[in-house]
Amino acid sequence: MVDVNFDIVLWVKMIKEGIEKKNLNPWDVNIAEIADYYIQKIRELKKFDIRLSADVILVGGILLRMKSEALYDECEIEEEEDYEYYEDDYFYDEDVETKPKKSQKKEKKENKKTKKPVTVDELIKTIEKELNKVKKSRKKKEKKTKEVEEIIEELIEEEDISDIIAELLEDLIREGIIIYQERFRTREERVRYFIPSLYLANDGKAELIQEKLFGELIIKLKSTF
Fold first, then answer.
1. How far apart are CA 152 and CA 64, in angstroms?
2. Gene3D superfamilies recorded for this chain (predicted)?
3. Dihedral sign (CA 129, 131, 135, 141)
4. Domain closes at, from 157, 179, 204
5. Can you give the CATH number for the domain in which 193 is found?
6. CA diameter of the chain
7. Helix 7-21 vs helix 54-90: crossing angle, to nearest 10
């Protein structure tokens, strides 16, 4: 087995390599594309029986979460833009009292959530902060952290999950909210349903609520779905 002894910076090299190979803008990194590249790179390294450190595996999980958040934010921005379009078209002149003033519309646009560009350096610093949070609690939660690493490593290997996505969506439609750790108690279940949860969030069918990395995860059916 090949031992990669430069794992401390390997994940950084993989991210920068992905930006270069996929010809991404280093001043406005596409999180979704770099996450896909990173996960694919891990799969390739594992095929060559290369042993990867916990940091490299955990960064894969962090990037997947960031990808989910980025895609969800894009959906929110599109929804707000659609609302403004219909608002402009369907308010009539005679409804003077209910029609928003120009100053109100301007204020709404200024307050509207916009996508902030993320540079490669900012991305790396954000990931480093998340890794440090995990390491600080590692001594107290060594067993739990190890399980998380193994779960992320296994979910990277998942291929056909369309049936699992459909099953999870049916449960959400029926129940509305699922508390991830309470519903999926075994390690195998958590591996099985993690990526499908991200897919539902990316598709705008569910909302993932998690205040802390690896903390309690709530899956909520979106009311607009």
1. 10
2. 6.10.250.2410, Structural maintenance of chromosome 1. Chain E (1.10.10.580)
3. positive
4. 157
5. 1.10.10.580
6. 76
7. 40
Number of domains in the chain: 2
pTM of structure:
0.50
Range of the domain at 127: 2-157
Query: Do 71 and 29 share a domain, yes or no?
Result: yes
Sign (positive or negative) of CA dihedral 43, 48, 53, 54: positive
> pLDDT by residue (tens digit) across 16-72?
999 999 999 999 999 989 988 998 888 888 777 667 777 888 888 888 878 877 765
What residues form DSSP beta bridges with 209? 218
Contact between 155 and 195 (Cβ < 8 Å) = yes
Assess contact for 202 and 189: CB atoms under 8 A. no
Amino acid identity of residue 154, one-letter, is E
Same domain for 153 and 191, yes or no, is no
Query: What angle in degrees, to the nearest 10, is found between the helix axes of 187-202 and 162-175?
Result: 80
Indicate the residue among 106, 138, 157 that finishes a domain: 157
Closest CA to 206 of 187, 182, 186, 223: 223
User: What residue has token string 């009311």?
Assistant: 223
User: By three-state DSSP, how is residue 209 classified?
Assistant: strand
